[in-house]
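Appendix B: complex inputs.
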Amino acid sequence: MLIYTLKRLVAGVITVWFIATATFIAMHQVPGDPLMNDKAVSDVIRQNLEQRYGLDKPVSQQYLIFLSNMLPPDPDFGISFTQQNRRVNDIIKDHFPVSAILGLLAITFATLGGILFGALTAIYRNRLPDFIIMFLVILGISVPSFVFAALGQLLLVNVNALIGYSFIPVAGWGTLMHMLMPSLVLGLGTMALLTRLMRSSMLEVVNEDYIKTARAKGLSPIRIFLKHQLRNAILPVITILGPQIAAITTGGFVVEFVFAIPGLGRYFIQAVQQLDYTVIMGTTVFYGAFLVLMVITVDVLYGFIDPRVRLK
Amino acid sequence: MDDTILEVTDLSVEFATYGGVVQAVRGVSFTVQRGKTLAIVGESGCGKSVTVQSIMGLTPVPPGKINSGTALLNGKNILGLDTKSANQFRGVEIGMIFQDPMSSLNPTMTIGNQIAETLMVHRGKSNRDALREATVLLERTQIPEAAKRAKQYPFEFSGGMLQRAMIAQSLACNPSILIADEPTTALDVTIQAQILELMQELQRTENMSIILITHDLAVVARMADEVAVMYAGEIVESGSVDDIFYKSAHPYTLGLKQAMPSNTANREKQLIPIHGSPPDLFAPPVGCGYYARCPHAMKTCERNPPELFALGDEHYAKCWLQHPDAPTVDALNQMDN
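Resulting structure:
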């Protein structure tokens, strides 16, 4: 298990290096440069700025400098081009925790809801609760999150108006109350997906021979469900959880935008629009490393639930 | 015959499918004696598995439906009980093992836990006691290093070991009947012999009855005391193992025997297959189910369902050829045919 984890980590580092390199190349292929602005810049100022950010050096050298700065134990992504004197490390440090909490809550909502509703639909297969939930699932998968975000805000406005004070804030960040609606909205798509997956997985497991064995042993339906069905049915759900964490944390910026949440997503988008080289590189590599780590974590976690994976 | 432990009478089971209603079991009756082995023999789809699964309450309802019949376990009907009442005898009075041991055990639970579970549920044992007893059970089914094995998962076991573990599990509460649904079909021949030997030994020590479902006549000859031959959802012939093998009274039994390779190499003696395929149970034939394939079929067989003829002590056959007016068929009812 340890060797397996180590192997995955080494592969993860290589993946991150790939991400960094690809981003670097793609970024420099975009027409224009970060110093272009509405205002005319004199040649002297331009030269000074280029010197400061190291843009006067050949691209290959810039790449090497960037890589060597990024190396642990003290990765340094440099200074932002557009936000005067702000270090990229600080931007990440200030804003990533917000995105991470949002993403974590969303994933929690999605997983718990997905497993619960998936199991329910399987138990009530082809009966009314199944039809209702499956209809909602299709909505959840097909409606984009910004629509849900707006609808969620509208709902909060009405609820608050009804109560008379701002019980659950419509936007902003700070308390748990602030976090509820955005994380719910963010997790909704994934919850729908997991519900479907859980449902089909449950229905598959119900027909397995070992369920028949469990019934022949004279176990109660509840015990069969908890001890024999659930754990086996959850396996495919866990598999997909890694990529879904990726989707949620990177897809969070729309929700962050609508709910005015000071997360990292906004800086990421802004940086791409303004060709802020250092911020693009910093956030991309950071996100990349984070997601790789998440996928590895999920894979290792899988080993604890499925003994067949553990020993490999 | 007062040592009857299970008496099944007139069991009929049907399944509602998209294609129509399948009459999988059509009026099956048999008895199981204490400490004896009843083998139910027949080809795939003849309803033998459905018969025992209905008794255990394992047929899914719907689409399955038990139309008629009773199954008296120690004089008490166990057919068509709700789950809660059924769990009073499942795993306690009747244990069951299945065809494919690889898929019949939960892949994410240790073997020991799966055996202990039965003891915890039915005997109210603590987790620890149950686990200890599970190890003893594994030892009794001759699994080496039982304590270590109990902590392992099904994927770490071989097929034969898994079937031993299944047997250990089904014996946990000392059931009076063990239902074995094709227990050796998925195993190779040497392992098959070991499993059968184990079952016989446990039967002797526990004075347990076995209902053995199989399509393998060699297994029947080795294991059975009584045999019921099933065809198209009916028992066409039943009797002691000697009656069935040496005085076969139904052309189907004879056909099965002739299709079985013998131990002695003999170039001249060819195997005779049974031609055709079983009747469509969506619309069961009016007369004898075997009519279309029977080499000795008579006119009456097509329209009239054969009666049950008693041929001797506990030897019955459902075939018109046993009627006093029927022509004699040389091969039937003969010693050593």
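Chain B has a mean pLDDT of 85.
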